Amino acid sequence: MKLELTTKQFRRLLDMAYIGNWILNSTRGDDRFKDYDQVESLLFAKAREEGMGILAEDWQGEVVPSRAFAEGGIHEAIMEYENNVFFDILAEDLARRDMDDVPIDESNYDELTRRIDAYIAEFDQHGTDNILVDSDSLP
């Protein structure tokens, strides 16, 4: 297979591969999807060949994204995504809980979205500052 990319496009591909592999493997410990690690390694080895050696380094016999790459801002993008997803999932979970976890259909979809929107507005304004757990219910 042959794929032609500009240097800028290839650099974006490295970002996308890293982000994708991070999402798939960062929480898996030793049970990683190794085939994704291998693709990432291939791409970063190619980066080295293309004069972008600062983006790759060797670790335990594999080519991996370098510390310079990982610390160059990519994790800020990942954290922004995780932050947004966290609040979206929390808002929907709380809205569904408020509706006693009934199945959602045409008859209650608008209510669900109103509740989600209300939680999102709260989180936008106050973050998690107003989320409390009753200390009497703690073990």
Q: Outline, from the CA principal axes?
A: elongated
How much of the polypeptide forms β-strand, as a percent range?
5-15%
Strand order of the biggest β-sheet: 1-2
Give unreliable regions as ranges: none
Q: Spell the H/E element sequence.
A: HHEEHH
Would you report the number of β strands?
2
How many helical elements? Answer: 4
Helix fraction by DSSP (H/I, runs of at least 4):
55-70%
Largest sheet: 2 strands, antiparallel
Count of all domains: 2
Q: In whole angstroms, how far apart are the ends?
A: 58 Å
Protein model, in words:
- This protein is mainly alpha-helical and 139 residues long.
- It has 2 domains: 7-65, no CATH class; 75-129, no CATH class.
- It contains 4 helices and 2 strands, in the order H-H-E-E-H-H.
- A two-stranded antiparallel sheet has the order 1-2.
- The longest helix is centred in the middle third of the chain and has 32 residues, at 67-98.
